[in-house]
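Hi support team,

I'm filing this because I wasn't sure whether my run with manganese (II) ion finished correctly. The job status page said complete, but I'd like someone to confirm that the output block is well-formed before I use it downstream. Pasting the exact inputs I used:
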Amino acid sequence: MKISFVSSAQASGAAVIFSNDKANLTAGGAHYDGDVIAAAIRAAKFTGKSRQTLSVYAPKGTNTTRALLMGIADGKKFDPETSTANAVKTLLLSGETKLTVHLEGMGISPDDQARAALGGRLAAYRFDNYRTKLKDDQKPTLKSLKIACDSPAKAKAAYDAFYGPVGDGTYTARDLVSEPPNMLHPKTYSARIKKMTDMGLKVDVLGEKKMKTLGMHALLGVGLGSAHESQVAIMHWEGGKKDDKPICLIGKGVTFDSGGISLKPGAGMWDMKGDMGGSAAVVGAMEALAKRKAKANVIGLVGLVENMPDALAQRPGDIVTSMSGQTIEVQNTDAEGRLVLCDVLHYARTKYDPRVMVDLATLTGAILVSLGHEHGGLFSNSDEVADGLLGASVASTEKLWRMPMSKAYDKLLDSNCADMKNIGGRLAGSITAAQFLQRFVGDTPWAHLDIAGTAWKGTSTDPREPAWATGFGVRLLNQWVKDKFEG
Ligand code: BES
Ligand code: MN
Ligand code: ZN
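And here is everything the job wrote out:
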């Protein structure tokens, strides 16, 4: 969808005008025949209540095909981003090809005018790569979105410098999470990441041979049952000062999680194609940072592995030695994400000496029990890092909630035959998973985001999100880097 910003225009195509009561149209309404619209409002008992819409077709004396009035009175502050998302969602398949959203005269800042465009863009997302039989009325028709606003030049600048790249990164993350696991496996995934050199990123990939010499046997153990070679892909963005220590972003990229020998039940197993959502957020964030030329040094590292049952697969009871030297008793092969992450965390820490590390992972079903689809779980060994991420979470609208960590939870991982076991028992499953990771971060400031509830959803409740992959994390990480590290 093409996006542009204009000062004040009569639309050609469809126009959206917001209204918070039956008499009071926003300034955009001035472009359209007031009598025609007033008559329609009376006839339809339009009151401007939130979620009410009223279509006026081909208003007299204009080039518009229709003016769509959208109610916004819900007692809350007008949110241009979700309102524009609603407008796009309403008209995406409508047959209209052009849409102008009127935001003039509403006292909206240039940044919010740009955010409105992002909202529209996010709402237009589709994953149709594998559909061959879409009927005409199922195909998107909308090709252009114009934001009519008070400061189009400033809004465009904010969009080009920030929200456009964020939208691109979010699209990438959604695409990756949506790709089926026969198409996106560790090798095809790393090949895709290698192409990101086009954006100015440097990319290295570690294969199994290299990982063996490094001693990454926790990660390698997870991939033993898979026909596809495990990979670690590393993306470097060097936009900061030469000797600024890097920020490391680390992602769980289990391209399919069958559970391994501790096989998951069949119902719903298919959605474990999304078990690489943490890595997708990292890849999307690196894209956004590169495209907006962020003034920071950031390294994204993703552990790409497929977890399958097989004669060669790892067994419950196996003991593996991680790259850190610590041994792990694998009591459940379905607790594989932490086995992947522990080696990537250790590698990142020892190789790059980062100032801070953040990992993202669809790590536990238990975080869904705690927080549902609303918040990602935030775990950290540093109040400063945690507070920074919480701030970015509010600003980016990708919500986080901080969870506790302590020695008592850590103790639940003690094993009687190795340095630790990979599961902590029935209780506090998300916390024991975080405690496991913490055993590999030393004193590096670190946060872990468990996004098992937010990376994808069964149904969409937010107009900016499709029915499945949300791209959660891209916007958050990008905002955090901007707010905390770019001075
Ligand atoms: N990928 C799953 C976690 C998950 C569950 C993500 C539901 C998204 C939705 C993870 O690898 C897993 O299987 N975790 C186990 C851990 C358990 C064996 C300690 C879980 O949550 O059941
Ligand atoms: Mn699992
Ligand atoms: Zn998993």
